[in-house]
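In response to the reviewer comment on reproducibility (Comment 2.3), we provide here a single inverse folding case reported in full, input and output, so that an independent group could reproduce the run without further information from us. The structure tokens appear first.
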């Protein structure tokens, strides 16, 4: 079965390379030299930030086990991280809008570096503090950087369509190439050089430090609403009013929470799904395969967003439908494929089918990120962008905390079925969003048809 992993990885690598090399002028957006310089600077910073994040991910759980903590204690640490992101994320998002997005990005670097430093301690309370700091940093990573980019892009007078170029490249590099390289570097530090499970966290601190200095010396500050008369409560109320009064923003928040909640749940489920009988599976290699799938999705997204048709609101319905169907595969295989009673060994036939479905889901993830970023740039008001984006993460973090707390209470098929149901609901809400966006055009066209052209003078 080892050949199956190489076959899937090789096929994806060829498809990704072909997709990038075969892009025509129709698939590319013509931009200016000034924009390319701005874009490349952001991509360098974003890649460094994501390297700091990806280096930590595969080794957090493993590090805690080496300190002697059990599954229950580790679960509480993870819940603390998501809970911290939920409780403090909205506050730091509002502060980013008020005090400056550049400052918020620097705060992210400092906070995450401190979180990495706590990993050197085997004491539970210190590690808990590190998880809380990590939760705050995660909120900043997924709001402050995008808010700074959109505001700076508009401030410099670049074409709005060019934002999609930066978004798709950021996901292709940060969530694809960098993730794969970070996995290889972490594996080298821990296994080849035998530096211990804390080594990737030290490497992450180095990348974050480099990125922080690039931000300090090359970025300018921008704000949402820097008004001194607005306190945090006023900003929260303004963000809540914006969500409640604009159905497009509310739908976007619901769609994001449903998809990301399913995505984070998938992160916890894919390993036991592929090895229900403790099959020996190459976790690092499968992770790299998932990242290649994500790269394929972001490459496809860049092609789609470079064209006038189809619109993002339209093709994302298909993306959600495919992602929902792909997560149904574990349920389907449990009925159609006889389970193996043998412990250990290589991946089963059902596992191979599921792996292909999971790759399809990861491709949808690669399509989702740049597409949702583009929609957020269009519909979320600039003065409260970071605040609203962190409001979106509140239901997401509640959902993930509930899943983590009850991860052993439900069969795996129930968990996948729940994720699939959420993704089908996201597809329905995306349909609603598309109809709202296209509604003014329909009304204008109907108005033109109803006009009495004979009663109007001819302009000859």
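Designed residues, in position order:
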């Amino acid at each position: 079965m080892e050949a199956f992993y190489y076959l899937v990885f090789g096929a994806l690598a060829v498809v990704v390379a072909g997709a990038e090399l075969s892009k025509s002028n129709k698939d590319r957006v013509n931009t200016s030299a000034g924009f390319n310089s701005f874009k490349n600077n952001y991509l360098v910073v974003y890649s460094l930030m994501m390297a700091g994040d990806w280096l930590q991910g595969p080794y957090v759980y493993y590090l805690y086990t080496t300190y002697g903590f059990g599954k229950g204690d580790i679960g509480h640490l993870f819940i603390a991280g998501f809970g911290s992101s939920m409780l403090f994320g909205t506050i730091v998002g509002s502060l980013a809008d008020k005090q400056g997005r550049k400052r918020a990005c620097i705060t992210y670097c400092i906070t995450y570096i401190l979180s990495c430093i706590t990993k050197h301690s085997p004491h539970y309370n210190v590690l808990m503090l590190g998880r809380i700091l990590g939760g705050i940093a995660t909120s900043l990573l997924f709001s402050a950087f995008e808010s700074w980019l959109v505001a700076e892009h508009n401030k410099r007078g670049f074409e709005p369509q060019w934002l999609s170029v930066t978004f798709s490249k950021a996901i292709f590099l940060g969530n694809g190439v960098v993730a794969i390289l970070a996995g290889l570097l972490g594996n080298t530090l821990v296994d080849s050089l035998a530096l211990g499970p804390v080594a990737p966290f030290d490497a992450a601190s180095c990348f974050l430090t480099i990125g922080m200095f690039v931000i300090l010396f090359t970025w300018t500050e921008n704000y949402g609403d820097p008004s001194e008369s607005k306190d945090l409560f006023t900003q929260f109320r303004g963000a809540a009013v914006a969500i409640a009064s604009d159905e497009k923003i509310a739908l976007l928040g619901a769609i994001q929470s449903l998809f990301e909640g399913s995505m984070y749940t998938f992160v916890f489920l894919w390993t036991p799904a592929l090895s229900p009988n403790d099959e020996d599976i190459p976790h690092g290699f499968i992770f790299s395969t998932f990242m290649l799938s994500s790269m394929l999705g972001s490459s496809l997204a860049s092609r789609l967003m470079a064209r006038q048709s189809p619109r993002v609101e339209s093709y994302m319905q298909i993306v959600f439908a495919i992602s929902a169907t792909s997560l149904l595969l574990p349920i389907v295989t449990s009925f159609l494929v006889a389970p193996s009673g043998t412990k250990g060994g290589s991946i089963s036939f059902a596992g191979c089918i599921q792996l292909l479905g999971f790759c399809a889901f990861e491709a949808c993830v690669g399509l989702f990120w740049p597409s949702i970023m583009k929609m957020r740039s269009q519909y979320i008001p600039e003065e409260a962008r970071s605040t609203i984006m962190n409001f979106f993460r509140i239901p997401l973090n509640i959902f993930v905390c509930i899943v983590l707390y009850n991860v052993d209470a439900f069969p795996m098929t129930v968990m996948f079925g729940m994720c699939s149901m959420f993704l089908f609901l996201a597809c329905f809400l995306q349909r609603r969003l598309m109809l709202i966006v296209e509604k003014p055009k329909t009304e204008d066209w109907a108005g033109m048809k109803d006009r009495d052209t004979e009663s109007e003078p001819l302009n000859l």
